[in-house]
Structure prediction request, 608 residues.
Amino acid sequence: GEAPFNAPAGHFPPFMWGGNRVAEVDIQFISDWIDDGCPDKDEAAAKSGSSGKLLRLSLGEEPHAVSRKTSNSIQSDRNGLKQRKDVDCLTDEEVCKWRYVHNEMIQLNAFPMDRRNWNYWGRLHGDQCQHGWEQFLLWHRMYLYEFEQRCQDIIADVTIPYWNWPSKRYRNGNLVPPKEIAFPKSIKKTIPVPFTGGVLPYHYQCFLNELGAKKLIGLGMASGIKEMVGFRYNADSEFFWGLEQLVGKLTFDWKKKIRETLIEINPLWYPFRWPAMFYDNNGKALGEEGMQSTFHHHFPTGQDVEMLLKIDQWINFVGGPSYDMSYGALDMNPHNTVHIWVGGFNPNNPDNKVISGPKPPVDTNNYPYGGNFFATEPAMGDMLNNLTACYDPVFWPHHSMVDRIFHQWQELHPGQQPFEPDAQLAGLHYVARDAASTRALGYEYVMDAHHFETDKNIGFSRLNTSHAGLSEYVIDNHARAEVRLHRIIQPNRSYGIRVFLNQPDANIHTPVVDNDHFAGYVSLFGHGDCIGGPGHCDPPPLNRRLFDQRPVHHNAPRDFKIDVTAAVQKLVAKGHKDFKVTLVVMTPDRNGAGDHLKLEGLSLKFFA
Prediction:
């Protein structure tokens, strides 16, 4: 059911013959059968093998594998909150889908009146965005929500990732030292400082692949361009410098063709951004020092965010109302600062006195992806200008991070409301109060998430998972960890669930005191025997009828959230680099609860 097999949004129906999705355990069974060489068994034997596997899973004798589906695909199937993840934690599939929706909207620029195209969003922000008062955060939250809904029209499980700028990998906004920028071995020179930039998220960097090189060679480019395949750069000034060492000086026309090819390869990259590139009147690169001396701001740090979150009044954090307009702290810094830092000054622009050369004519239509714009060298990056900022794809993870900080502040300071809750948000079909909650809008912020699907028809006495497959980045940068049990079926009999990390042999006798592997405990209040007729206590269907406005069903499945931060931190201190989860089900008399636990899966989530 994922794009393009998601008609009517995609080109093809999910299943050609009206079939249903295959359960994860059955997918694993088929995978195991293929790995075993596709043995010739009859149907009964196959069912027997599958039943044996399900029994072992229900007893915790065999681990559940990490789901092959994306986090949001699973949440979408459950009508749950979708997750906006750290952009540096996206899976390859999530990155591919994120690029796909960008490319789809860029292609729709061929239809200028189509409000689904990329330029529509750029113009809307330039014409209507609110800054410098309380609607800044409220307007942008709903603007991102609208854009995200548009993305989900194309691929239903796509969300806007956030860019965690204070992370160590962004070097506090400083320039990457020239000797650390990789080029083909045939290039012996070191790139001059004016052409080097700061670090952008990995997926937003530019790179050339073999197909792109083949295309450009077919257009007449020298074959030396093949040496640039596989290298990644934060700005095209780095890419162009390296390429010119191999093929000679590039004309404006060639720069246009190359930029268009790089965007085809990675629609998240954008040519008019020069991060941390600032220059004095003589063309000397100033780097991070330049942003501080010119704009009096430094690149945001973790300490900056901590100080912001301590502000306790709406007017100081968010901003003032229309009758007392004033900037909120988050709007000024880090929001404005990152815009300036990403945009930067173009080292290839004659006005910056780094190089000189003729300026090509500019086509004033279809900015920026159409016409002749990619053959030009503007003085500044688009993120530095409020009217053009949203044309750069990195605008979205930047503002997702801003919205995330706003959400964190709301969690720490509950009850604070806009001064003008019924004020219209310009250019959007919402009022200020509509932006009060991220959860009400269907999303939450998660650094990383790993799901393990289960068969809800099977009762568990123990449940084990495989290792989640965590990255070093998550281990080093998370602030909180959580195990979620998804859509637990209301039991007849009360029982408890003990949660252990990296202790797959845990059982009802495993101690919880002085055991660093013990992570938490939840209890379920049993429903008791049904007092009604057949079907009275059956769990309700996942999707309610359109006009069903009755209260939530008394036996509706629920999620449980267990904070496992303390256990994770203790085990990380002992050298653990990855985690698996074990659930042990117990009745109040401390006996095994048989097969009372029924659920649709569990997940291990990390938050920054």
DSSP finds 16 helices and twelve strands in the chain. Residues 174-265 form one domain. Confidence is low (pLDDT under 50) at residues 42-47, 353-358.
